[in-house]
Amino acid sequence: MAEASMPRFGHGCFLVCLEQLYQKLSGRELKYTALIGKPSEITYHHADHLLYQQAKQLGWENVDNIYCIGDNPETDIYGANLYNRYLQNRAYQMRNMKKKRVIAGNSSTLDVDSDDDELISSVVNTIEDEELESNYAMNCHSILVCTGVYCSSRDYVTYDNKKPSNHNHRDFVLDPHLKQPNYVVQNVHEAVQLVFQKEQ
């Protein structure tokens, strides 16, 4: 596929056809209630969950780092970075909840008012979340390979915003910064070597 003269068509092409057919037959615009698949977070969340299950079967406690290797900045890289942002936000929220738990634990008396109800609720949620905390990776790293959709010798796909493009779903809000990969390598072999190097 790296030698293909045009971008690959996938389910996005099907959706464009579906939207046009729906419009023509019904006279109304097709409304979506949910978006799944790359680059949606839920896809990477599911992959994280599967990695956790595999690690558990192998006797590992957890998987701290996920490395997503892909050739498309707008789906593979974007999705990995979007999921990493989710993981970082989640870690930040967990730290804040733990602080609240410490504060609540150090309080000798609690006058229960609306603020305290919220605090107690967050402490209870923190206890429940701590049980699930090890089920998630800490980081999701994106590695762009130059052997597929993105190739430095071609310029129909770019991640450096010189030529903005967006081939994602029409309802998907695009943040151009998330198309920036953590690493760029020439091929999958180099990507795997990079992962081994980082995890030594």
From TrEMBL:
Q: Which UniProt keywords apply?
A: Hydrolase
GO CC list: mitochondrion
Listed InterPro entries? CDP-alcohol_PTase-I, HAD-like_sf, HAD_sf
Presence of keyword Flavoprotein: no
Q: Name one GO biological process term.
A: glycerophospholipid biosynthetic process
An example Gene Ontology molecular-function term: hydrolase activity
- Name this polypeptide is given: Haloacid dehalogenase-like hydrolase domain-containing 5
> What organism does this protein naturally occur in?
Mytilus edulis (Blue mussel)
